[in-house]
Amino acid sequence: MNSEIIQNLRSDIDELDKQLMALVEKRAQLVLRLSDEKKQLGMTEYDPTREQAIIERLYQEFKPTFSQSEIEAIFKPIFKASLRIQQA
User: Fold this and answer.
1) Phi-psi label, residue 18: left if phi above 0, alpha if psi -120 to 50, beta otherwise
2) Which pTM value belongs to this model?
3) Pick the CATH number of 3-87 from 3.40.50.720, 3.40.50.300, 3.30.365.10, 1.20.59.10
4) How far apart are CA 17 and CA 8, in angstroms?
5) Cα–chain-centroid distance for residue 51?
6) Which DSSP category does 64 fall into?
7) Cα 43–chain centre separation
8) What confidence tens digit (pLDDT) does each residue in 12-55 have?
9) Nearest CA-CA partner of 78 in 19, 4, 7, 25
């Protein structure tokens, strides 16, 4: 590969990183809306069963590329941040 191809690929990755963060931000906004609904119903914010179901679903879809522990390593910080913004 020449340096121009590498630079183009890195540029594409940078754009995807920006899109990923935009999606995480959108997810956070939905989490806040969900939190409001849960509070009105007297439900707790944290649902470990739901977290595990999300990880399992994603693992089933992406297991040829990612292990379950890698998916957990990606999503556990997102779950933690989601809980933090609900409690802010």
Assistant:
1) alpha
2) 0.88
3) 1.20.59.10
4) 14
5) 11
6) T
7) 22
8) 999 999 999 999 999 999 999 999 999 999 999 899 999 999 99
9) 25
